[in-house]
Design a protein that fits this description.
single chain, 126 residues, alpha+beta, Ribosomal Protein L30, Chain: A, 2 domains, three-stranded antiparallel beta sheet, 55% helix
Length: 126
């Protein structure tokens, strides 16, 4: 690499993220181009330096692993949480790995788990 390019690279390395973004906008305006593709290439190359943010899970499933000793209480809670009839709720309680609720928010899943555990069930939120 030439000395001129190395010096330019050192100068650019001192820029903050906001300054670098401003520089990109200025160069796009001056040269009438879009830096979308080069930015994507640069981001892919710099993936080792900065980890991508992990997308937070927003939908959860409430799964019964075991109804426990108080199966009747667990069935009552399942009926409160869902619109299932007695037979369907009983089948859920008796089948390990049954999903009581699917695709619910974190608060609803946590609340359902708490109620089912208070009734005696062994529950996980996935």
């Amino acid at each position: 690499m030439s000395e001129k390019l190395e010096k330019l690279m050192e100068e650019l390395s001192t820029l903050s993220v906001l300054e670098a973004a401003d520089l990109v906008k200025m160069l796009e305006e001056k040269w009438g181009v879009s830096a979308a593709a080069p930015v994507a290439v640069a981001a892919a190359g710099g993936a080792a330096a900065a980890a991508e943010p992990v997308e937070e899970k927003t939908e959860f499933d409430v799964v019964i692993k075991d109804a426990g000793a108080k199966k009747i209480d667990v069935i009552k809670v399942i009926r409160q949480l869902t619109s299932l009839g007695l037979g369907e709720a009983k089948a859920l309680a008796e089948t390990a790995g049954s999903k009581v609720l699917t695709g619910v928010g974190k608060d609803a899943a946590t609340d359902a788990k708490k109620k089912l555990e208070e009734a005696g069930a062994n529950v996980v939120v996935e």
